């Protein structure tokens, strides 16, 4: 998260430095949602203030993950939740944000989740003065951090409230050189902060191991601790190399052993550098590739994709947590010439051949594909610029303008197509080996695929998620209730005076009867 915020500034992108990135982001991102249209039309000052908040959440808040003060960690957690939820609402980024939310739950504790039994029924007792005195440094640390964050936001981004216009003005007040010097100062301490946190967790695990009883349990715990401890330390050491790419001087000062270890396992892609939206693309309009097919080369029909923008009257879809790979890659293909995306030539070839598995990547319902009865004779691609429609335009979500031809008109056996296939090594490929479908497992999987194929992937995924959620709810309702659900025990009322006298009078009788019984037994 820290690197994701830093690279937005180290890239020298004018949109990020000018705090105007979000005025383009919502309509130029890979797969917008319907909420993206509404977010795009928010006031410009609010877009700029949102960029300031993004920098604070991605750069200033991550170090709070390691703070000893509990409330600071919770503040860091909820800031990340806010960012990820807003991204989920305004953009289709598959399961990326959900994974981030799962990772951030490590900042929570049992007390915050109310996992302790009977926690809600315990009476709050005033803390003793030694405990209150020990909590004073934590309170001072929290106030100091809150003050530094507020001062830093106001000072670095020139925040000013315009009471006449009811807006908040913002601008970047620091230079690239100043930011680079600051990055040199803080990058290495962030690494040592991670080292200290990892060391503390390993020591805690070692302490828990000493509490294990029995030689067999202690031996098994020791093996687990050794394996996971070595693996965690090694992976952390490997990740320091790509993490330090954002600051060259820190990268050069890293331990040489870390560089050698990273080089030895680099081909496994265990760790890599990270930077989301390093530079804002589509500043002059969203580039979009539109495929077209024809039977005669004169009358062309657009090939509509399920998720990416095409028809200007169709609203953007919501596909989270699905990852439509082809629609996603079409966005990257539009950022450059088709020669930068060799797979696009293979896509055109498959459409000319009418391969159904490829057609299902474009339209899950083959009947909606305009050439489902017969493959097109010619295929070409046009490049358009797309913009969100204005609020007054009825029935339109987009407006577009033709830019140029993206891929020339080709047919099977066309010399241009054959040349491109040879250039990219896609021609004369040996056919895939036929797999036997005689086994019961293969037949079962084929039947399952045929039953689920009519469903769109987002519908299927949400159906599975809601089913699991319903099962968990039913288990919680029908299963044994936790102890903290039971009502508090009733207090015993003092007995009335008459009953107390009756019990006192019956006491001698009970003693005499017990003595008579003992004499009879004797």
Nutshell version of this structure?
With 522 residues, this protein is an alpha+beta fold.
Which features characterize this protein?
522 residues, alpha+beta, 2 domains, four-stranded antiparallel β-sheet, two-stranded antiparallel sheet, 54% helix, globular, LMF1/2_N, endoplasmic reticulum, glycoprotein
Write the layout of secondary structure elements.
Layout: H1 2-10, H2 14-17, H3 22-28, H4 34-40, H5 44-60, H6 70-90, H7 96-104, H8 110-113, H9 129-157, E1 160-162, E2 167-169, H10 176-210, H11 215-243, H12 248-253, H13 256-265, E3 286-294, E4 301-302, H14 325-333, H15 343-353, H16 356-362, E5 378-388, E6 398-410, H17 415-423, H18 440-452, H19 457-478, H20 497-521
Antiparallel strand pairs: 1-2, 3-4, 3-5, 5-6
Helix pairs in contact: 1-5, 3-4, 6-7, 10-11, 11-13
